[in-house]
Every structure is written in structure tokens, then in C-alpha cells.
């Protein structure tokens, strides 16, 4: 999955790093580093991070900003 963090919006609250530590990490006090191509196994955690970010800075494909974790089915 692909994700983008708008670092102009990001205030370094670290909610995302707490909820999805394999994808997001704080670098110092305020700088966020993240994996823009997180694995699919991270989807649920990323969904929680998207929902938890106080400034809606995280956008991820297949996830909306308000729905939190959404069931993803490929129909198989
Ligand atoms: S939760 Fe949002 S504001 Fe906080 S560090 Fe993550 S992206 Fe930035």
C-alpha cells in the first residue's frame, strides 16, 4: 500500500508512531519518518493511524480519513 504524510500538517503528535511503529517513527522531537510503501500486513495499523492523526496528515490508498479500519476483500 502507498501512503503519504503531509509534513506541513504534521505536528509531531506521534499518534501514528504509537499505533503503527513499523511504519511511522519519530526522529527527534518533531520530525516524522515513515515508510511510504508499507506492506499490506500493515494496513489495519495504518488505518488506525490515519484515524488517530489529530490533524489528518496521513493519506493512504484504500483508506479514507474518517472510517478507520475498513474491511478489504478481494472477493476470494
Ligand atoms: S499522528 Fe499525524 S501529526 Fe502526529 S506524528 Fe503522525 S502524522 Fe504527524
From TrEMBL:
Q: Which InterPro entries match?
A: 3Fe4S_ferredoxin, Fe-S_cluster_ET
Q: Which domain of life is it from?
A: Bacteria
Keyword Magnesium in record: no
Metal-binding is among the record's keywords:
yes
Q: Which UniProt keywords apply?
A: 3Fe-4S, Electron transport, Iron, Iron-sulfur, Metal-binding, Transport
* Pfam families according to UniProt: Fer4_13
Task: Show the coiled coil region(s).
Answer: none
**Per its Swiss-Prot or TrEMBL entry, what cofactor is needed?**
[3Fe-4S] cluster
Task performed by this protein: Ferredoxins are iron-sulfur proteins that transfer electrons in a wide variety of metabolic reactions.
This protein's name:
Ferredoxin
- This chain's source organism reads Streptomyces canarius
